[in-house]
Amino acid sequence: MDFNEDTKRVLKGFEEERSRTGPPEGFPKFPVIPGERYTDSKFLELETKNLWQKSWVYACHKDELPEKGSYFVWDKLQVPIVIVNSGDDNIKAYYNTCRHRGAPVVTEKTGKARLLVCTYHGWSYDLDGNLINLRDPRDFVDLDKSCQNLIEVSCDCLGNWIFINLDPDAEPLKDYLGILGEHMQQFQPEKLRHVHSKSYAVNSNVKVLLDAFLEVYHVPSIHQKTVSRFIDIDGTYINLWPNGHSRMVTPHRDPDWKDPGADGLTEIETVSEIPKHQNASYSFFPNLVTPPSATGIPFLAFWPTSDDTCEIDVHWFSPDWGDGDLPKVWERRIENFENILFEDTQFAPAIQESVSSPGFKGVLLNYQERRIYHWHEELDKKIGHNKMSQDYSIPRVLEPFVEK
Ligand code: FES
Ligand SMILES: [Fe+2]
């Protein structure tokens, strides 16, 4: 990945965006996105099966599994999963489901174990998921122990970040992320430390909220007194990448801008000019948005909790701050971020009410909001046009604008 080239391209992109008088030549008019995609239970069922249960999603950080035997129960997709440090830097994930009659093999949210022992009838599994002991084996006719290991879940890492995919045939995470994964290397994800995680519940379909984090068209209005004072959305430069991923970079009004909230914090030396001096935001399809900087990286992960409710998890990561406590400025930094987050989420519940009202005729997007359409095109690709009601699918129009 040539970051000098990337910097040049983005800076040129800022100028082009600022001077344009409309979308570029040949850019399509977006078909309206039907509101039923946010409300219809049949559509959302297809979405669960083909998107949520078949995508790489962020689960946790290696700091949350510090030693051999450390485990972490993860249930963000309403399926009980246990992620385990099985030693020698290996991370494994299993359904937290005993092969005997389905009781959990760990019952605490986190902990450390030498063996995963189901406390219902005492079956025990090693950290590699092998069934090693069960009570009264003589009473099971023809039991082949080797066929009763814990069922593994696809698990892969980008540095210290652990991702899960419920699809047993998932492609490697690196291939799935493509250019996005290359971009993330500059943040040295293998050295980042976990700082903080917190969840926020929101009363809307998860996509209402996700859409809000894929554009900056809203910045001059809802962030008028905050973000808008620092960034200039007229210059926003966007990359649409394969598999639904994307990046959006918005120039700072002041070219020498420095985050006052990050004063005195260690910088990751390998971070290139763009995320260092501008406002870059990456979207990992389907549900992770991150505006990383050289001094810290927040992950916003979005999860459906029902058809019309969702949750945002905010995770913060930092370059190594050495021995001792986390620098004090982090408290302020996290609080400031939370305030912006509340600005971003404020309309979601009302929008959710609107999408099921006769007053809503669909989502009407403009050129600046093209990452949202790109996201929805990928959703349709995952579901398959032939599987959903034609009324709810959206035509593919962005293909020529996706960088390979
Ligand atoms: S359900 Fe686990 S031992 Fe019976
Ligand atoms: Fe925002």
Layout: helices, strands, pairs:
Blueprint: H1 3-19, H2 41-50, E1 57-61, E2 70-74, E3 81-87, E4 90-95, E5 110-112, E6 116-117, E7 124-125, E8 131-133, E9 152-158, E10 161-165, H3 173-177, H4 179-184, E11 193-202, H5 206-212, H6 219-222, E12 237-240, E13 246-250, H7 273-277, E14 279-284, E15 288-290, E16 297-306, E17 309-318, H8 329-345, H9 348-355, H10 370-383
Antiparallel strand pairs: 1-10, 2-3, 2-5, 3-4, 4-9, 6-7, 7-8, 9-10, 11-17, 12-13, 13-14, 14-15, 15-16, 16-17
Bound molecules: FE2/S2 (inorganic) cluster and fe (ii) ion.
Fe (ii) ion (FE2) binds next to loops.
Plain-language structure description:
It is a single chain. By secondary structure, this protein is an alpha+beta fold. The protein folds into 2 domains: 3-54 and 191-401, Alpha-Beta Complex (Naphthalene 1,2-dioxygenase Alpha Subunit, Chain A, domain 1); 57-161, Rieske [2Fe-2S] iron-sulphur domain (Rieske Iron-sulfur Protein). It has helices at residues 3-19, 41-50, 173-177, 179-184, 206-212, 219-222, 273-277, 329-345, 348-355, 370-383, and strands spanning 57-61, 70-74, 81-87, 90-95, 110-112, 116-117, 124-125, 131-133, 152-158, 161-165, 193-202, 237-240, 246-250, 279-284, 288-290, 297-306, 309-318. Strand 15 and strand 16 (297-306) form a beta hairpin. It is globular. It starts with a helix and ends in a 21-residue tail after the last helix. The mean pLDDT is 96. Bound molecules: FE2/S2 (inorganic) cluster and fe (ii) ion. The site of FE2/S2 (inorganic) cluster (FES) has 10 residues, from loops.
